[in-house]
From TrEMBL:
Belongs to the bacterial ribosomal protein bS20 family. It comes from the Bacteria. HAMAP family: Ribosomal_bS20 (MF_00500). Residues 1-11 have a biased composition (Basic residues). PANTHER family: 30S RIBOSOMAL PROTEIN S20, SMALL RIBOSOMAL SUBUNIT PROTEIN BS20C. The keyword Ribonucleoprotein applies. This is Small ribosomal subunit protein bS20. It comes from Lentisphaera profundi. Residues 1-26 are annotated as: Disordered. Keywords: Ribonucleoprotein, Ribosomal protein, RNA-binding, rRNA-binding. Binds directly to 16S ribosomal RNA.
Length: 88
């Protein structure tokens, strides 16, 4: 256990950051599931709208440091490919 007051504060703030990051990642996973469900139902227009929401959430996650930029780019690319494949 930490002894210094500043170390104790870091432990508290790290726990808050961890909870915040977990919530953001969970929200991204939810958007991803909704998008994939719309693709399975062949609702292309609604899936396109869901994709923009998902892209926005991914970009915010990269900006905030929750996810690394290459990971976000890879996820965005795979989502766009899935949409394009379903649209054909």
């Amino acid at each position: 256990m930490a002894h210094a007051p500043s170390a104790k504060k870091h432990i508290r703030s790290d726990a808050k950051k961890q909870a915040r990051n977990k919530a953001r990642k969970s929200a991204i996973a939810t958007y991803d599931k909704k998008f994939n469900a719309l693709l399975l139902e062949n609702k292309i227009e609604e899936a396109t709208a869901a994709l923009t929401v998902c892209f926005s959430a991914l970009d915010r996650a990269a900006k905030k440091g929750v996810m690394k930029k290459p990971t976000v780019d890879r996820k965005k690319s795979r989502l766009a490919l899935a949409l394009n494949k379903a649209a054909k």
